[in-house]
Sequence to fold (438 residues):
Amino acid sequence: MAGAVGSGRHAPEKGRGGAGGIGQAPLVCFSYDPWGAYEKNIHRLMRRLAARPEIGRVLFVEPEAWLSRLLEPLERPEPGEAEARSRALRGGLSFPAREIGVWTPVHRVPFAGRWGALGALDRALLRSGFRRALRRLGIREPLLWVNRPFEPRLLEAAAPVRGTVFHWSDDWEAFASPSERDVTRLWTEEWLRRADLVFAVSPGLRARAAALNPASFLLPNATDPEFFEAAAEGTVPAAKEVAGLPRPVLGFVGFLSPRLDFPLLEALARRRPQWTFAFVGPERRLGGAGEAFFGLPNVRRLGPRPASEIPGLYRGMDVCLVPFRRDEATRDADAIKFYEYLAAGRPVVATEASGAERVREFVRVATGSEAFERAIEEALARRDPGEVERGRAFARGNSWEARAGEVLSRLAEGGLLGGPGPAPRPASEAGRRLAVSP
Fold:
């Protein structure tokens, strides 16, 4: 979790970015997730890349929005959501960092999907807004960074392009509704084939990508180790929300959604009423199982918290949990929580999901509520400083700064960085249209 989008006070200085800077390859990133109050891997990676002289500037294109939906009242707005809506309605750029401009494509023409002439007008308005955003940032001949499976309706407005990267940061097909699964899979496969480079977040996704594109590389998630040092070293006090809770406190920080194994958690909380379960983060359609768990007297639902408070929350947790269900959505995932918890010096207990097998050396992995309970007991009883330091060393070796360096090395090897760059290509070569429904 990290801070909200800025108001524009970080507007870029003239003279930086664009195709004119020697050795610079500005990015246009099409993201699956909007830039809001909570940052995911794509936001953290773009921050690091934008700060590097090889890139210099990033246009972050959020998912498309529809004017009619933006005008609907917000019943339970999340932190940053109202500001993001306001930005989208204005049609301008927001600057969460000096060299990152965030832009939202908004469909403003009613019935554009039903009438040919209205659809053409809507597309023309979108392209015009996209070109204005590119001009304001001084971006020409960009490198396309595609982080979602979408029909590339705006790409012609970015032409010519330097090349295309497909960043497979989640198995989006697993999250898609039944009616959208086929088209999500088709567009994912198309981008995998078309990309000059593919970065996949897990070994499973990387293997699937390599079957379609040999230039596919593993790019796991990471953390900001220095941000969590205070929690590990005890130089920050435990947050008041957890400091006064009955011990021990078993904590989780992240999105509260059906991806969590609520039946396991409920069984554990009922068997151990003396344990306190403190869960922090925004909610996503918890369902009956989730509400049953959060209705227990030893469970605390603390809601979302700003990034600045997270180290203090970790400091007040005796054991941190990664209790995801093992299913299609978590099979090829890579939970950022592993890296953050270890950087904060916390003992970690996880289910066999979301990349747990890759960090088994540093965390306790268990299947089933009874084994999970025993793993927590062991974590509480055994406070090994060497174990904590090994976990912190792992986190330090997996920083977002290091990931940005890995990306730049691969881009350089692929001829997508340095000097004037490779011969620019028409955008249509980077994302040729498929005969599928959008």
Notes: The chain has two domains: 27-222+400-430, 225-396. The two ends are 31 Å apart (CA to CA).
